[in-house]
Amino acid sequence: MKVTYLASASVIIEDHDVKILCDPWLVDGEFYGSWAHYPPLSFNPEEFNDVNYIYISHIHPDHCSIKTLNRMNKDIPILIHSYQSKFLKNNIERLGYQVTEIPHNKRTNLKDNLHINILAADNCNPELCHKYFGCSTVEKNFGSTSIDSMFVVDNGQQVIVNTNDCPFPLAETSAATIKRKYEHVDMLLVGYSSASAYPQCFTISDSDKIKAKNKIIQNYWSFAESYVNLFKPEFFLPFAGRYILAGKKSILNSQRAISELEDTYEYFTSDSKINQQENQCVILNSKSSFDLDTKQISEAYIPIDNKEKQNYVDNVLSKRKYDFEDDKEPEINQILDLIPSCYSRYEKRRNELGFSSEMVIIIGLTKEKFLSISANGNGYQFIKKNELDQFKKYVRISLDNRLLMRILSGPKNAHWNNAEIGSHLTFERNPDNYERGLYYCLSYFHR
């Protein structure tokens, strides 16, 4: 078998005349325009219309990229896990694709002797992946929820495991199931980085941002170590979660909790917790390959030139517009008219969960006007800037009103979760603690 790396979590796994394209995000501009690739991609999605299958692990746009899928051949069958929620399936089918749902942990023949086995990650816990709103568009209850998947491909002789960006603590049970079923793993594709708004979008000191950034990077390296030490693959490829911010938010790039791929490689190849003789780290350029038969890469890795990268950000990416920036600036009354129905949905969900908190959610509407939303049944109110001091426990969220209008209008237009991952929201909170129920309920604050 052969693995070709394209971008982020996008790879092609090939065995003889069968090709599986995994998690295709092959154009810039997901998360409402803020996510881009670096190095810039040298190909178009249409170049991969010869693949036999597309596997999509989960709903996030860097894995299920609508902008990519819209440009590809709709006759390519798409493989997903058979989730209880049909949110992912329905979204893909609306694009015109045929979706095959594969039951959990069922080794399924694709063609000849090539098999795929898809397993759901165990549960959603935003505290581990730092996606503060969770994935409430597909979560049915506030607790343990499968929204991501990993898979195994084998041809009867060689085994490749793809964990995409599932943090090890979330997927440990499923990973252990794979280990029991597949004694030898030839290659592991494993995530190594976080992709969230923390710490770059939070109002904390620069020193605290640096500490948080370094801690998260180390945590994700440790998650990858755990996968390597469980599967003991002959080779492992760090990938997924690789992106750079475009547009106005590009100024936040240096604060993201993401390491360069070559820094990750340097860490893993000098890591005493990994058996360097038996578990070899491999990194690839875009469109380069690793052949399991020859155990060779197609070309040497080219390290990132940080000066060239910054020039590209300054001269190209920073000038890009977000999807919502062509929208007409909403009148304040248009936003205010949506608030009652949004609050009704939010409050219904909060009551269903039995969640209550003294924290207040504050959303900026204008420089002088704010919306405060209680989390204990005390309703909402519109307040002036000079009234903000009355709140001692709060999370204050700032965002572009054009994006806010889209979010309040409903998930088909935009959603809090993707706005957060796209670094479009700015947070200030007191006390500086994460309260999952608060963000989970707010994710239902829409029409």
Quick structural summary:
With 447 residues, the protein is of the alpha/beta class. 26% of the residues lie in helices and 22% in strands. It contains eleven helices and 22 strands.
Characterise the protein shown here:
The chain has helices at residues 66-69, 87-93, 126-129, 168-181, 206-231, 261-269, 306-315, 332-353, 401-408, 416-421, 436-442; strands at residues 2-7, 10-15, 18-22, 35-36, 53-55, 78-81, 99-102, 108-111, 114-120, 149-154, 159-162, 187-191, 235-239, 244-245, 280-281, 289-291, 296-297, 357-364, 369-375, 380-384, 394-398, 426-430. The protein is an alpha/beta fold and 447 residues long. The strands form four sheets. The chain has an eight-stranded mixed β-sheet with strand order 7-6-5-3-2-1-16-17, with helices on one face. Mean pLDDT is 95; it is low at 128-132 and 136-145.
Unreliable residue stretches: 128-132, 136-145
Q: Helix tally?
A: 11
Class by alpha and beta content: alpha/beta
N-C termini distance? 48 Å
Number of domains: 2
Task: Provide the CATH topology of the largest domain.
Answer: Metallo-beta-lactamase, Chain A
Biggest sheet: strands, sense, closure? 8 strands, mixed
Backbone CA Rg: 22 Å
- Arithmetic mean of pLDDT: 95
Give the strand tally: 22
**Strand-residue proportion:** 15-25%
Shape: globular
Q: Looking at this structure, what is the CATH superfamily of the largest domain? A: Ribonuclease Z/Hydroxyacylglutathione hydrolase-like
